[in-house]
Each structure stands twice: as structure tokens, then as C-alpha cells.
Amino acid sequence: xxxxxxSVNIDVNPDVYxxxxxxxxxxxxxxxxxxxxxxxxxxxxxxxxYTKDDKLVKVEGDPYAPFNQGRLCMRCINLPEAxxxxxxxxxxxKRIGERGENKWQRISWxxxxxxxxxxxxxxQKDFGPETIVGMEGTGRNICWQVPLLTYAGFGSPxxxxxxxxxxxxxxxxxxxxxxxxxDLSVVDCSQFRDVRYDDPEWVVPETILVWGNNTIVSNPxxxxxxxxxxxxxxxxxxxxxxxxxxWLASRAEIWLQVRPGTDTAIAMxxxxxxIEEGLYDQDYVEKWCYGFEQLAERVKTMTPAKAAEISWxxxxxxxxxxxxxxxxxxxxxxxxxxxxxxxxGIPQAHALMCLNAICGNYETTGGNVMAxxxxxxxxxxxxxxxxxxxxxxREKRIGDDVSPMHQFGTFSSTAQGDAIxxxxxxxxxxxxxxxxxxxxxxxxxxxxxxxxxxxAIKSVDFVVVVDLFMTPTAVAAxxxxxxxxxxxxxxxxxxxxxxxxxxxxxTQYEECKSDETIVLELxxxxxxxxxxxxxxxxxxxxxxxxxxxxxxxxxxxxxxxHVWPDHHYRRHEKGLLRPDxxxxxxxxxxxxxxxxxxxxxxxxxxLPYYEEPPESPITTPELFKQYPLVLTTGHRSxxxxxxxxxxxxxxxxxxxYPLVDIHPETAExxxxxxxxxxxxxxxxxxxxxxxxxTATMDHRVINAEHGWWFPEEEGAEPSLFGVFxxxxxxxxxxxxxxxxxxxxxxxxxxxxxxxxxxxNSKVMPGEQVTRMGGFKYVRK
Amino acid sequence: MSANKIGFxxxxxxxxxxxxxxxxxxCKKELDLPVGQWGIKVLQDGPRKMANGKWExxxxxxxxxxxxxxxxxxxxGKKPTCVHHCxxxxxxxxxxxxxxxxxxxxxxxxxxxxx
Lengths: 780, 115
Description:
- The structure holds two protein chains of two kinds.
- Chain A contains 29 helices and 28 strands.
- By secondary structure, chain A is α/β, with parallel strands linked by helices.
- In chain A, the strands form seven sheets. In chain A, strands 6-5-18-17-16-7-8 form a seven-stranded mixed β-sheet. Chain A has a six-stranded mixed beta barrel with strand order 23-27-24-26-25-28. A four-stranded antiparallel β-sheet of chain A has the order 1-2-3-4.
- In chain A, a hairpin with an 8-residue loop joins strand 5 and strand 6 (104-106).
- In chain A, helix 9 packs across helix 11 (292-300), helix 9 packs parallel to helix 14 (345-358) and helix 12 crosses helix 13.
- The N and C termini of chain A lie far apart (59 Å).
- By secondary structure, chain B is of the alpha+beta class.
- Helices cover 25% and strands 30% of the residues of chain B.
- Chain B has four helices and five strands.
- Chain B has helices at residues 22-31, 71-76, 81-85, 96-103; strands spanning 8-13, 40-49, 55-63, 91-95, 109-112.
- In chain B, a hairpin with a 5-residue loop joins strand 2 and strand 3.
- Chain B is globular, with a radius of gyration of 15 Å.
- The model of chain B has no long low-confidence stretch (mean pLDDT 93).
- Chains A and B meet through strand 4, helix 7, helix 8 and helix 27 of A and helix 1, strand 2, strand 3 and helix 3 of B.
């Protein structure tokens, strides 16, 4: 197979790499499958699993998986170290000491299930099913499994994503995308056809606008980050908006070094330039966009000069970027998590979509295409919501009163983490009696006010944790810990987006069970009249059947490894986006809604607008005198995904400590040298990380890592594997979200820094939080 | 016979090396190298702002003396693991003559002939 340009790997030896799903290579069985579990990211790359004697020995990238074309990142290459790790949870554990003492007793699965069933039934009877909350962490092949258990098993409408404040990962972007575009779009790297870059219909994007997203590190949301590099090698130019000079920014024509949280001002000013100078795609706007006049009026209020003052980017660069992007045919917009992690997140996502729309980039080849699940497979948060809950029960979902946008299941379909936290703390609208955590470690990671989340989860009557390793969250709060299977130990389905992929069970580790198996076995015990799946494959077939995928059953999919649906460009012209078959986009007006009628009907501003972060040099100038640095966080590193991978010695060799990026001038001002432990502190708390001096930061901004805990340290309190000592979420805040209930200021806080000394490290945060009542401040 | 005597090497296009560490870890796993040992090491230059305002920021994977060009894999008809897994697709294995020819087509490349 020939390919355009470099960066593909499929010119491999067909005598060695087979198209079969399984073969023998010497002493190994080689199986083509998909990696789609923790520990790992959101991609679902094609893998070759090398197994021998029921053990995973090594992995290689599957060169015949068009998604990754044989390539892998550090985390997959090191998968055998994770899968065979001696510290993995091996069997169900029941707490025998106090919470926090890390004392456990091995029990059987039947004993564990009996205990859960007894507790659940009693809670359902005494307090109502809604007082049970099911939570998951970062979404992989638990995205529909945990919701299903919550709805079908527990009978509760309260499924939530950990204590992620403002649902600030993907959900804000998805929700507003459905309002504005009727779909969710991604950069077209020809990923919807198996021929990839050889597709004669595909053209390379002329310019990719990479907005707040270091794709090569973060592997964002079903988008293989290095596809951007593939496009660069085929001629794409970049414009990068990022507070830090990333590698991508170093290769960009234009880099806008934005003050964290002020992106909307730049996007609006770019539109101001594009409209003023008549650079927008007039034909496209006239035919396919709704509300252009109102948008033009709105962006008049944000001149490049004003945006420059707000964002710290010069107006010349903003103008230059606007012109370059508008004149690129096609242009494409790559966005990332940063868009969600601001109280201005919804208007920001709206602004970015408007910017891309007025340049005519949606549904064009090499622009942005509307991504849909193949054969409308449903592997998301709604599975079971309408099937197993009455309307009366659905109305009890916590957080639906935060805003009308949150009520509509098609947009969000989760309870809101902040509202769950408040319900635990206040008992309103009703008390929370049980928490089910499935591969989520909120006090290490997603809970934005980690000490507050710690207090809350410890106060709940019954807590179950399903995970891969004993985590700080499990030690702090769990009554029962269940071991989850990884990777080649489970059968699963992967979409999001094309193709439909299988992952297949090849090995078994101790008594670990897949999330599917745990969910169905519990559902069968809790609610057998509704849930009567025989086994995991039966459950997966139920999903395949609903999606009407062109495979007989899961077994056939395993043998095909992946199957590709048809893909068409310019579907809006052909009536392929709307259920009524009319041309246009799948919105109320049939057009891309620059003026968003859905937001208007919800009582929200129908046009993009800029709002300062709640704590910033502008919003809180007095506080900023005390905390004179802008703090951004949550960026990724190659070695880790959120709080995972910290127990792998190879990863820690590459990345032993948490790192905070500081400009050399700033470091000098505070007497900090490369590699020093540094306290990062604000109104809510402090943590310490090691200084990495880099001139890529603005001297007024620091960039701290998230997700750190230290599996090698003591598990029992006050240590909890050192989880609070380096936890940047001692400084962030819960329950401060945008007016829609979406978006929270994870990435735009304020802080001060000082060098850690023996004297100022006498009371470590772990001690402070678990033994001394926490940091003293008023919780919102 | 050692690899370079039969005239094979690695061509690396460092314009597009993103510093993702995949070659390093893939090599460590292939050769089962202990902590602190590397068969290929990614060197970093920059980020450093230049007089013209642009940034110099380059990564360069350098084979060490432990690199045997994945002799075992080559014997089986595979590519070296660093080449197979490189996320940016910037590494090419082949006869030196062919790689030299490729160098003339691509700027910012280096050619290594390990051992």
C-alpha cells in the first residue's frame, strides 16, 4: 500500500504481520486487538498482544490498524509492566480497620456481591434508590457500564463523573456543539476511512488552528495526537494558542501566548478582524449559518486592542492569526480540554465554533467533519437511562436544577459532580448514602478541592471502589474494594469514533473481573427482572444489536478486529446530517447557529461573550497582590494519564517527581533553582512540586502538574500515599461553574510560590488535611 | 558481522521529532535494559528564543553503543522497534546508500550507522 509522505508504518513484512486476528510467532500467540482500559488514554489504538502461558509478555503496535498505523505511545509499550504489576488488586477486599487505616481482609466475589446487595436493598428501602451515586473517572470502557449499573442495578438517576467540577472534560464542548452544530466535530485527518491519507478525496488542511491543546502529549479524546504531525509533514501550517511554548507552538507560523482563561477574548477579536476585513466565507455564511448579523454586532465589542489588553497577546499577532486562518482553504480547528476548564468554557467553545464556521470549515474535506458513532452505536452515558428509570425517578437527578441545559439528557445525561458534593455536605435535596467509584480516584485527580472531597466521601455510609490498584481514594473511604481487569483480560467494544473495534480477553489476572462482568453480575443480582445478561459477551451483543452494526455478534467482530462504516463529505449539502433528510445541519434552524436558539431558549446568552476567570489579576486585584502568579494546571505528560501509571518503575525513571514549570526570571525573583522543591500556595491550600525552569512560560504564569500520588509511600493516613502533599487540587475550587453549570476554573487560578525548606515543611499537607481539619478557609 | 559493516543505518528527520520518548522505551523493553541504560537516547536542544523571535526547539534520538539495530527483529523480517513505533514516523531503517539518497530529499536529517 502506498502512502502520501512519511509517518506511516504499513509497509511491513506481510509474512510477519498477518491480517488474521490471531497467529503464532515462535513461542508466542499474537493477537490483534484494541487497548481501551485503564491504565491508558482515550484513543483505543490497535495492538498486537504477545501472550505465552496465559501471560502478556509484550506488545507491538498493529501496523494494520489504520487508526495508529503501528505507532504506540510510552504507555502502551509499557503495558506488560502494568498488567503484570505485583501491586495490582487481586481479589475483593473488605475493610477491617477504620477508614484510612489501610487494613483489609480478602473475601470472595460472592461475599462481596452479597454485602453490596444487602446494603443497596436496605438503602433503596429506607432512603430511596436516588441516594446511591455511581461515579466513574476518565471515560474509557466504563463510559456506559457504570451508568448502566447505576440506572439498571441501583435504580438511581445519579451517575456522575467523579467530582469533576463543572463536568469540565469534554461534556461542555459536546453539549454546546450539539446546540450550535447539531453534532460534534473533529479535525479531518482522514480518520474516517481506512485508506487514511491515501483517500483521493481527502485534502490536507492548509492551516490547523491548535487551540489550547498539546495534541502530541495529550492524545485527546479519540484523536491520535500525532495526526497533526502527519498533516504538518504533508504541508499543514499551524497557528497555536497556548500559555506555554509547546513543541507544536515551536513549529507554528504564529504562536499566541494567551493568559490562561482569556481565550474567548482572542477568538472574538479574530472574528472581529475577519468580519471587518470581509475575509469570512460569505457564500457559506449565507447558506449555512444562522445569526451572522448578531454575531457581527457582538464581536464589534471585542477589538484586537481590547483583546490584547485582556489576553496579554499583542493585537498585531491576533490580527495576523485572524487573517491567516480566514485565508486558509481549508482551515481546521483542533481544540482540547482547556476549552472546558474555565467558567467561560461554554461561550469559549461557542466562539471557537463561530470562528470556524464563518471561515466555511465544517463538513469540508481537510476541515472539520461531524464525528458520529459508527452505525449509531450507543456506548455513552445514557445507556439504560430511559430503559430502566421511570420519569419520576429521572426527575430526581441531582444538578438538573443547576440550569436548563443540564436537564436535557441528550446533551449531558449525568448528575453534576458539584451538586453531588453539596448534597453530601448538606443532605439536600436529599442525603447521599452510598458512593460507587469505578476506576476513579477523585482525591488524587478530578476533585477540584481535594481536601473537601476527602471530607465528603469519608462521611458517606457505604463506599465501594472498583479499581486497578489500591488508591488514596480507596484507602480513605472504601468499605469494599474490587479488582478490575485490564486490557487483554477483558472483552470489550470500542467506537468513539470510527472504526468499530473489539478488544478480546486473552489472559486472566488473579480474580480480576472486567467492568462489564462486574456490572452485569451485580445487575443480575439487584434487578434480575430487567437485567438478565448471561455473561460479558451477551452484554456486548446487546449493544451491538441496538447499534445494528454489520457483524453477527461479538465473536465475528473479534475476528474482524475492526469494521469501518461509509463516510461522506459535505453531508450538509446532501441531506445526510438531519433525520428529516433535508439539507443543512441538525439544529432547530437547520443551520450552524452563530446565534444559538437553544441557548436562548435556556435563558443563556445566545452569542459568545468574554468573562474573566473568577480569580485573576483583574477580578480579584487585592488577592492578586498576595498571590501574584497565574496558575495553570492539568496539562499532560507522555508518561502518565491523570493519576495512573505512577507505580510503574519505567515511567518513574522518566518522570520521578511532579514538576512545576517556572520562568527563570520568576524563579530567580523567589530564589528558586532548577530541581528545588517549591511550595505552591493560595487562599485554599498548598502543595509542593519540583521546579522545572523554562523560558517557555510567561514570567507571570506557572504551570503545575496534576494527578500525583506516590504508590511507593505509606498508604495509611496521614500519608495516603502522599496524595495531598503534591496535589494541585488543594488550590483549585469546587462549585464555581459557568451559568450553564458547565465549565470550572481548573486552569486559571492565582497563587504564590516559595522554596520548600525544612522549616516550612514541618507540617505536610497530608497531616494538615487528615489530622488537623484541613486548610482553614470558607468553602463556597 | 556487526550491523554497519553490512552497511545499514537509521535515518532520522529531526524537524518532526516530537520528543515523545517512544523510541527510548521501546528499545528498553526490546533489549530489556535496566534503569539508567539506553539503547537510544533522545537529546534535547532548546527551547531557546533566537534573535529573529523564532524558537529553536529540537529533539534528536541518538543510538548509543547498546544499539544493535534490533538484529533479532531484523532477522525475523521486522523493523527496529524504534522505527516501528515512532509516533511521528521520522525514523527510517535501511541500507546506508539508500538512506543517503533519502537525505538529499529531506532537510534536517541525520544518518546514524550504529556499531
